Structures are given as C-alpha cells and as structure tokens.
Amino acid sequence: MCSYHGTIRLFVQVFWAHLLCGWAFGSELTFELPDNAKQCFYEDITVGTKCTLEFQVVTGGHYDVDCRLEDADGTVLYKEMKKQYDSFTFTAAKNGTYKFCFSNEFSTFTHETVCFDFQVGEDPPLFPNENRVTALTQMESACVSIHEALKSVIDYQTHFRLREGQGRSRAEDLNTRVAFWSIGEAFILLVVSISQVVLLRSFFSDRKTTTTRVGS
C-alpha cells in the first residue's frame, strides 16, 4: 500500500514538473510599437525544428502591422503588410539565428500594441516511456489528457485576454470621441446662442434709432 501511494506521488511530481517545463518552449510577449518604428526579435533554431509564429495587434491605429520573418541567411520566409493578426508555421531548413520584425513605419502619429507567440519545436512527452505497458498506463493517459486540456485552457485565456484588451481599447477610443463631440456640440450651441442674442439686440437698436429720428 505504501509502495502504491509512493508511486502515485512520484507520478504526480513528474506530471507537475513536465507541466511547468513543457510550456517553456517558445516566446510570448506583448510590447508597444511606436509610430514610424520597427522592432525585431531573434531566435536560435536548429535545422528540422518546427516553429509557429502568431501575432495580433491589440490596440492602436487601424489595428494593423507589417511583419517579416527571415532565416539565418536573410532569406525571407514570411512577409505580410498591414495585417491585424496572422499565423505562420514553418520547419527550419538551416541552423542559425532567425529574425522576425514588426514595423509601424507607415504610421506617422499612432503607436500600436502588438502581442506575438513564437513557438519553437514541440512539447516533449509528458512521460518519456509512455509506450511501456505497466499497471499505471491508464493513470498516465489521464495525466496526458489533463495536460493537453490545460494547454488548451491557456490558449483560450490568451485569446480572450487579447480580445478583451482590444475591446477595451476600442471602447475607450469611442468614449474619447463622444466626449470631444459633446464638447464641440456645446461650443457650437453656445456660439449660436450668443449670435442669436446679438442679432436680436441689433434689430431693436435699429428700430429705436429710426423712431428717434422721426420724432425730431
């Protein structure tokens, strides 16, 4: 009985160790890209490694950005102009440092917030010897299923967090526009009111002047 519980405890420890380390492969970052600026990132990749680049513009301007991906020799693997979001998967054909850049050089007065996720390689198996036949195979399968489900939950959380940030930015922008529009309407109403008062007073002033001249 003690041996059984010790085995379960061991598998739980291995599960959490792989759970925490399995997500360390890749880079996820949200950064601010100023107007008329370009930001590049670099990653060392070995030949035959499968990689995926995903990005999305969260706030700013028309929610679009230029993206460019180059291999170790400077060959362009991916290039898109004014994209709000996209995903690109490739397999490294060469060893070396790969570069991907985001550009906002087409904008002269609006900065943007960009989020990207660059996954390099695939997650290692949760249990290195999954194919062996043991009494705990069913438990291992359950752990793997939970692991995959938690990864899906993280992906959904990231997606909805970005959507929430984008929605909040648009709501704040709309609120600012409504505020300026209200101020403009109030100013126009004030100018029209003053103009009407001045115009009416001028009518009465002209009538009074005419009456005085007739009486004399």
From TrEMBL:
PANTHER family: TRANSMEMBRANE EMP24 DOMAIN-CONTAINING PROTEIN
Superkingdom: Eukaryota
Family classification: Belongs to the EMP24/GP25L family.
Keyword Transmembrane helix among record annotations: yes
Entry keyword set: Endoplasmic reticulum, Membrane, Signal, Transmembrane, Transmembrane helix
Record keyword Membrane present: yes
Membrane topology category: Single-pass type I membrane protein
Family annotation (PROSITE patterns): GOLD
Signal peptide: 1-26
Full protein name: Transmembrane emp24 domain-containing protein 7
Residues that span the membrane, as ranges: 178-200
InterPro entries named in the record: Emp24-like (IPR015720), GOLD_dom (IPR009038), GOLD_dom_sf (IPR036598)
Name of one Pfam family that matches: EMP24_GP25L
Protein species of origin: Oncorhynchus mykiss (Rainbow trout)
GO cellular component, one term: endoplasmic reticulum-Golgi intermediate compartment membrane
